[in-house]
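Summary for the lay section of the report: proteins are chains of building blocks that fold into shapes. Here we show the chain for Beta protein and then a coded description of the shape we predicted for it.
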Amino acid sequence: MPAVDFRQFTYYPCLQCSEPEQIAYRELSEEDKDAILPIVELSQIKNESSFDSTVDAVRGLFGERPFILDLCKDAAPEAYVPKTNVDHAKVAKLQKAQDDYNAALLAHIIPTDGFAKWRECASQFKGAIPVLQFTDPASQSKSILRQAAQFWKAGVDRLAIRVTPETSEEIFPIIGQIVVFLDSAEQLLLIVDCGQGRQQISERIEFAKRSAARVLEELDPSQVLKLSAVCLHDSYTSPPESAKIYESRSRELWREASTGFPFLFGDYGGHRRWKKSTTYMPGDWKAQVVYALPESWIIYRHDNAQDPQGWIVGSKAILEHASFDDGFNCWGSQLVKSAAIGKLDPYGSARFWHAAKINMHLHRQIRYTDEAAEGSDEI
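The coded shape description reads as follows.
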């Protein structure tokens, strides 16, 4: 497989392994899959799913396609124990499954022998560009460097490293040391993850600028122009009930951050990530239809709970909305158009509509970044 040129890709969606995210990616066209370099975080697919099942799912989903392999460090939540009519055997079985997943997760972030378990895991994916793992740079510097060196020794010629606002400043000198033993800074991708949320945009922008600047300070001048970095952020959280147009702030953040460094663009696929404390699944749901626009979404949320007709009514409302733009065609948009004429089967389940939202968002952002790049070439 030829070496990946990070600057060849203009969109880096960050996906986890939930069923909707898997469906959304799987239903992309081959052309769309070729256009992106996804950042894939191994995560529990659903309650009781094992870590091995996650590995198998990602291997099946991506095959030999290149992608960036990371690890979601969020633990599987505790088993939910109802207040009445407790089935203790069922709760114990669920808790064991969650504990087993967490034990496997912990094994992959233990720094022993340069994060040997993580390196073993990454070796199972033919097209994977591994993200270097760490939890505490101050105490794990030697383990991080050994991890990078062992990947390099094993023939992995592209690596990535991810920093967040919570990452200790000690990581930046380590990044500089990693680049020293690579042939070129072109072989390392810096992922600057500004997080999820619609607030503190100026602080997130400043974090992105500062992170890029700190890494550049650690590089030899001959390597400064060779570094590629992704600015990652998503502003899709929980729209208010009355929302019709819900503006995204991710492009705004990326544009402002890029005044200090030519960041590549990334987001979480327009998908809100929930951190659950228990496996509790609420019984009630309301049908929601989300249609992706370049820097916003049209959103319809049905009034009635547990009413599949909401997807039909919502799809009709989307197509009739003044901001509806029928300028693109993908699996998710076809799902909306089919539902608008009353054809719901076999997609009368929430997971497909979450997948449709993500699928449309990915497709739209691919087209939007391509249009922006063409526009800049003409100037």
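Put simply, here is one thing we learned. The longest strand covers residues 296-305.
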